[in-house]
Amino acid sequence: MVVGYNCKDWWKDCLGSILRQDYPNILTIIADDQSDDGSREEIQKLVEQEDAKDQFILLDQPEKCYQALNNYRVATHPEVNEDDIIIELNLDDWFFNEQSVSYIMKQYENEDVFATHGSFIWWDGPGQLRIDIEGRFNSQFKEEHVRALRYPFLATRSFRAVLAKEIDEKDLKLDDGSLNTVGGDAFFYFPIIDMAGVDRIKYLDQPTYIYNVSHEQNDYKCDYDEQKRQIAQACEKLSYPRYEKELV
Asked: Given this model, what pLDDT does residue 136 score?
């Protein structure tokens, strides 16, 4: 699941890191959110190549949707089966190494694992790498009141596709019914966390993700106060019941 906006400088790093994975049978569904920097056209050329048609789908986005709704549209795409595992990779980020997907998928051999998160490395431009395992989040994440943490679910984030299909699209919107414009990961992932249950979420202590904080379109750089306001609304939404149906 790849979502992004105006990632001309990084989309090749992102999709290239997917192509280099040693895990077979990866389908990448991309939601470009009305980019105006030429990146969508470049990505379109890639996915139209004969050897890429079975590996990539670029969604036709008639309007701007922002992160939460884009995530939902990718996760509930007709090509996504209920027994699939969805891994999120933002279009301006990339996988840590060629084994990242294999390492994540290995966790789902345990049927009691419904989602995974962590760990990532910050990247703030050439020569600016900083390991950030964020172990403190892992211990906090086990607490009962997940929403009090605001940012409890860390990259790389993955989950069983069946959970996304249980989300009601209206829960991805603000209280007035409009689309959330920042902090969309909270709107999308709180229901995933609820349905998975904190005891069925596996924290990964090996880095799998490069988080690119140099991009000026990062939500906290665009409007941090508005991001906090919108996330607060996500925190106040009713929790989803734990998913108890038998896995396919």
From this structure: 46
Distance set, CA 62 to CA 31, 32, 122, 240 (Å): 11, 11, 33, 30
User: Is there a domain that residue 39 lies in?
Assistant: yes
- How many Cα atoms within 13 Å fall on the side-chain side of residue 62? 0
- Separation CA 66–CA 235 (nearest Å): 18
Element (H, E) at 35: none
> What are the beta bridge partners of residue 56?
28
Please check whether residue 16 is in contact with residue 100, taking contact to mean a CB–CB distance below 8 angstroms: no
Number of domains composing the chain: 1
* Contact between 235 and 190 (Cβ < 8 Å): yes
Q: What is the pLDDT of residues 45-68, one digit of tens each?
A: 998 987 888 899 999 888 899 999
What confidence category does residue 113 fall into, taking pLDDT thresholds of 50, 70 and 90? Answer: very high
CATH number at residue 169: 3.90.550.10
Distance CA(132)–CA(205), nearest Å, equals: 10
